[in-house]
Amino acid sequence: MTHTPAATRRPSGTLPRPPAPGEGKAASRLFTVSIVVPMFNEIENVEPFVREVTKVLDESPRTIEVILVDDGSWDGTAARLREIPAADPRFRVILFRRNFGQTAAMSAGFDHARGDVIVAMDGDLQNDPRDLEGLVRKIEAEDWDIVSGWRKDRKDAMLSRRIPSRIANWLIGRITGVRLHDYGCSLKAYRAEVLRNVRLYGEMHRFIPALASWVGASITEAPVNHRAREKGVSKYGLGRTVRVILDLITVKFLLSFSTRPLQIFGLGGLVSFGTGMAISLYLTALKLFYGEPLSQRPLLMLGSLLIILGVQLLSMGLLAEISIRTYHESQSKATYVIREIVDSSSPARNA
After folding, report:
1. What fold is seen in the domain 26-256?
2. 15-58 pLDDT, tens per residue?
3. pLDDT tens for residues 122-160?
């Protein structure tokens, strides 16, 4: 797949662009990076996470910013996060008014990122910040648009997490046509312009590679380290699995019929309408040529129902066409509400 540059605007402000070591040529400069980290009730992990990321930032020759997004935490995470930018201006914090979900948190981080490459990762310390450089370098040196992390040696439970994950990865690959070993790994690196063309809602952050493939993004994967969760509680459960399955159906529809919904509804409508009409013509012939009574024939009811269903499906297709056009015109609407953005210039106060 080939990469198609986005035509949409970048967010206001850009990170400084340092030249490559030993060179002043713009063509060989290092990519700037934005790290986006959603957090929800991770108060025990905030300090160790920031400590690990800060070490990576200090050792990197790149210009890197870190965007920490608090997704409506109620355990004090927001207050802890709010203190960070004053101590280190490379960190920015986005505070939501309530819990909007991981996808919305990632979307907010993406919308406010200023780097050439955007890296998403979890804040529970299961992702290793030291893997960041390898993912970015793969985009920089090999010209990929997306590099997806692959947790080859997962530290999660076999029955409750790893086996369902393998089944889900196989299913997502089959349905979307984009085959990756680990869709569920949050640690992924993206060219910023690719994300400008991808709008997220529901639980669709895990499907970004599939959605980006629709706009021509090139995708690869790279092995990354995975660590067991030591503090806090996992936010994954059965309810989230159900939402992921429903979103997978939506993704399939978006990838296959998002610009032509009448084709899927229309095909079903025409088949239903045509079958109903064929049954009606058959019954009409029986009545006209053989004098057969029709009132007691189940086929009469079936034919009528199929005709009605066909008309309904065709109508739904037309309405979907109108809805899709409206969606594409209004998709700039955010799926989250920000209470506050905190950076190094923000006044100190309790969250």
Report:
1. Spore Coat Polysaccharide Biosynthesis Protein SpsA; Chain A (3.90.550)
2. 654 444 444 434 468 999 999 999 999 999 999 999 999 999 99
3. 998 899 999 999 999 999 999 999 999 998 877 666 665
User: Under a CB-based contact definition with an 8 Å cutoff, are residues 125 and 225 in contact?
Assistant: no
